[in-house]
Amino acid sequence: MTTAPDLRLQELKREALADCRDAFSEYQDIVSYNTDKVICAFRECRLSEYHFHGSSGYGYNDAGREKLEEIFAHVFQAPAALVRPHFVSGTHTLATVLLALLRPQDELVAVVGAPYDTMQSVIGTRGDAPGNLLSIGVKYREIPAPGGHYDLQAIADGITQDTTVALIQRSRGYSARASLLPEDMRDIIRTIKEKNPRTICFVDNCYGEFTRQQEPYELGADIVAGSLIKNPGGGLAPTGGYVVGREDLVERTAHQLTAPGLGAEMGSYASGYRWFFQGLFMAPHVVGQALMGADFAAALFSRMGYEVSPQPGEPRSDLVQSVVLRSEDHMQRFCEGIQSYSPVDGFARPIPGDLPGYSDPVIMAAGTFSQGSTIEISADGPMRDPYVVYLQGGLVFEHNVLAAMEAARRLLAE
User: Fold this and answer.
1) How many CB atoms are located within 10 Å of the residue 284 CB?
2) 207 to each of 39, 210, 361, 394, 397, how far by Cα in Å?
3) What pLDDT, on the 0 to 100 scale, is given for residue 172?
4) Which residues pair with 225 in a beta bridge?
5) What is the pLDDT of residues 173-191, one digit of tens each?
6) How far, in Å, CA of 241 to CA of 206, rounded?
7) Structure confidence by residue, pLDDT tens digits, 334-361
8) Is the pTM value of this prediction over 0.90?
9) Do 361 and 382 touch, CB atoms closer than 8 A?
10) Which of 17, 232, 298, 413 is the most exposed, having the fewest neighbouring CB atoms within 10 Å of its CB?
11) Which regions of the chain carry the CATH code 3.40.640.10?
């Protein structure tokens, strides 16, 4: 016999899907545009099966590595790219850029509020990790984003002739701030450049790739970085990160990643590059699936009475969907529901624990094929009031729906 809660849940599903109809149509247009962009890059850069093979040792003249970087530069409309499996995470990629561009007494300004918890460790505003930016003499300031919105006037006032790098975080991270749409990034970069043309505009593009038709370098950014186990890896890249942008800045980053004097000319990967190429090919479609899943979750949990951001149908510029659960118990239930519908470790129960770079215990539901891959469906967040869970990713829309429905069922089963 079908129970009343089950009937209510199925009705919520029907209503949520109806709420999403217009947004789904918009996402399909974005997917088509970005798929064409990627295919054109593959064709014009003359990708061949030969480029799938790996190399060993120093990796001199690694044709696959060089072709992958050529294609990334083409896709992101930038002069140069550094795409390497040797980046261990998005944070590592971002940190490598900052350490390459900043010297003692240089100034870094985060222009849309505090960055991710892990980036705060890199900067030195959280913890005392060896080699953080503050410890080597870099100056740091933050321009608040009051009420979750950036302030162009405050940004104009906060950028000075001494500002070396402006850090622009596209995604919300673990915060209430809305992600930055392309028009937001263009306005912020223009404001910074009008105040100080020499300031390097550095965009943290994690979770944002292929969610819209334009990428940050096209909007005026100088250098852009992200993770390959998020959007641009398409769920297939097993590791790595990328940097695209001005040639001189990408070159400095390459010397920071390897060693001064070695730069981008070295770096082997014996496993080969097929997963990276194929992941990039799949990325626009996979991102579209994740966007649909996020909008469905927003509609579903909004109808259940939870505060969500973005709202259903609201323009999105990243994959992150936040749901304010208001209690530790609800956060635990939600993450257990997502984990139980994971293809890997679906039998496991997520438990809050300490993670490097975070000051609060973090609960994480992530039964992913690649460890920590947030283009695959996951849900996580720090266990602190108001107990906000951040749902992200999803390779297949139907999987997103099933997982969200299970999380909702557990919330209703009190």
Assistant:
1) 25
2) 21, 9, 22, 12, 17
3) 86
4) 204, 243
5) 777 788 999 999 999 999 9
6) 10
7) 999 999 999 999 999 999 998 776 778 9
8) yes
9) yes
10) 413
11) 51-272
